User: Fold this.
Amino acid sequence: MTSSDLENPMPSGRASASGAGSASSPGGDAVDGGEVQDAGADLDAPPVTRRTVTLGITLLLTAALAAVALVLPVPYAVRAPGPTENTLGEQDEAPLIAIEGSRTYESTGELRLTTVSVSGGPGYPVSAGQVVQAWLDPTRSVVPVEAIFPEETTAEEQQEVSQAEMVSSQESATAAALTELGEDVPATLEVAGAEPGTGADGVVAEGDVIVSFEGAPVETYEQLIAGLAETEPGSDVVLGVRRGGETRDLTITTGGVEGEDRAVMGVYIDPRYEFPIDVSIQIEDIGGPSAGMMFALGIIDKLTAEDEANGEVIAGTGTMSPEGLVGPIGGIEQKLYGALRDGATWFLAPAGNCAEVVGNVPDGLRVVRVETLHDAREAMEAIGAGAGAELPTCSASS
Assistant:
C-alpha cells in the first residue's frame, strides 16, 4: 500500500444512482438530483468573501516567493567537516608518505590530517536554503564568500593556488622534519620579493640568492633563521647576495613582529632544497597549506624506531614553516568535528587558533596547543606513552 493509500482511504461502500430517485452511500456521500453534497460539511460555515480570497492568494504568493528565495544563490560560503587522511597510511593503495634513501619504521597509531569542505566558492554558489541549513548545524559555519576566496578569482585560479600551496607545504614539512631529526638540509635561498614598507623594500631584488648573513656563510634556511634570532628588532643587518654573477652586501633595517621578540627582514624567500633523502607525498583532491604539521609528524614517525603514536589516533592541523613554526589555519571548528567523526581522540591545534577552539571542542576530543614542530613531536610522544593528560590545551587566556 502506498502512502497515498494510507492518507486517503476508500469508503467502506459504493454509491449508486438509478432513475430519478436518490440513494445513500455508506461512505457518507449523498446523490440527489445529480448534485453531490459533502455530508460532513458544516452548513453554518461563513460564506467565502473577496477579502478571504485575497488573503489566500497573498499567502500563496508569499509562500511561492519564499520557496524561490531559498534556491537563489547568495554571497556566502559554507564550511563543513571534510575528509581526514592518515599520514602514516595509504591513499589509493599507495603510501601517503614514501621515503627512499633511509630506513623507515612501522607505527601502530594514526596521524590524521584534517580538511574543510567549502561550498560557495567561484563557480559553485550556495543557495539561501543551504545557508539556513548550515546556520542550524553546529558542525558547519557560514562566512561571507570574500572571507575565503579573493574577489574576481575563478575556480581554476583558486585550484591552482591551492595546489601550489600544497606543494610548498610538503617541501617545508620535509625540511622542518629532517631538521628536527638533526639532518642538514642545504638550500638555495632565492629572493622572491620584499614586503612593502619594510627595510628590504627597494634593497633586495627578485632573483637575488642569499649567500651570507652578517658575514657568516648561509647554506641552509636554518642558518639564516638562527642569525635573525640573535638580532635585535630595529637594528641593521648585512645580507650577502649573489646578483647577476656578482656578490654584494646589502644593508637592511630589520623590523619586529607584534607580540613577539624577534627580528624580521621583510624578504620573501623561495628556497630550493637539497634533501639528503627522497621524501614523496602522494595525496589527491586536497589542497592548501594546512596539512604541513601533520606531514612533518608523519615523516618523523616513519624515520624513527620508536612507535610514537603507539596505537593512538591523533589528528591535527597547522601550517609548517621550514624552521619548524606551526601557523594558524581557517575552519578549525569543522576540523575538530571531522577528526572526532573519523576516530581521533586527540587533536593538535596551532596556538594561533586557540581563540576559535575554546568553547567549540566536541565531547570525546582532547585538544593540545602547539607552537612549533618540536612541541607537536613531544605531544605525539607523550600521547603515545599515555602521558597526554598534562599537555597544554587551549584556554581563554591562551
Q: What stands out?
A: The longest helix spans residues 155-180. The longest strand covers residues 76-86. Residues 1-43 have pLDDT under 50 and may be disordered. The chain has nine helices and 25 strands.
